């Protein structure tokens, strides 16, 4: 095996491949957990680990023994705490997302103009439905997810798995439809489910006029990589929630750009 020799180390080709693979795994894990509550949990665990080292160095036996008991179940705690992220990571691998993303990158590198045009064609029925529902002041909550988690969504939703269309979205959110309460979830270029019950945000600093739709849209964007389009039933105003933040009074031009970027 050939080696690259430095003054202080010897690096083989196998070592280089090993480092690159570990870096790729860390990168994809970071993409899965960034801007979610998992980052705060991971930071908390790192802080506990640092405190454990300091306590050991200072010979604080009582506190050290307590932390040792906590650290002894660290692997089990990691699996329990990061169970949603582990599911998403395995789902990502199972659906060959790495390969699909690489194909998209190759298209961008070779200057393919069809990618953006095709995406705009996918978005058009959604924009048209939002225009119609804004005009009629029909309340709506549309959630876009990169990876559809059956356990997270299907258990609390009515499964549809249908092609995206303006009329279908309008009929779902029509006031007398049995599916109008809850959210529509869109993934893999399909309306996957409707009437979904989503976790509400715990943020107590939101404006008082925000109802359950806004709080559910913000909540799902806090805990997952989803984005949400919310149409107010009272005002017809369109809001866009991402990473726990909400953008109000979104125009249709802005909505098209945001969805083209995130969807």
Structure in words:
This is Diadenylate cyclase. Belongs to the adenylate cyclase family. DacA/CdaA subfamily. InterPro entries: C-di-AMP_synthase, CdaA, CdaA_N, DisA, DNA_integrity_DisA_N_sf, DNA_integrity_scan_DisA_N. This protein has 263 residues and is an alpha+beta fold. It folds into two domains: 13-94, no CATH class; 121-262, YojJ-like (1 (3-Layer(aba) Sandwich), CATH 3.40.1700. It has helices spanning 13-33, 37-57, 61-72, 74-81, 83-94, 97-109, 114-136, 150-153, 166-173, 212-223, 252-262, and strands spanning 3-5, 10-12, 140-144, 158-163, 183-187, 190-196, 227-231, 238-242, 245-247. The strands form two sheets. A seven-stranded mixed beta sheet has the order 4-6-5-3-7-8-9, sandwiched between helices. Strands 1-2 form a two-stranded antiparallel sheet. α2 packs across α3 (61-72), α7 packs parallel to α9 and α7 (114-136) crosses α11.
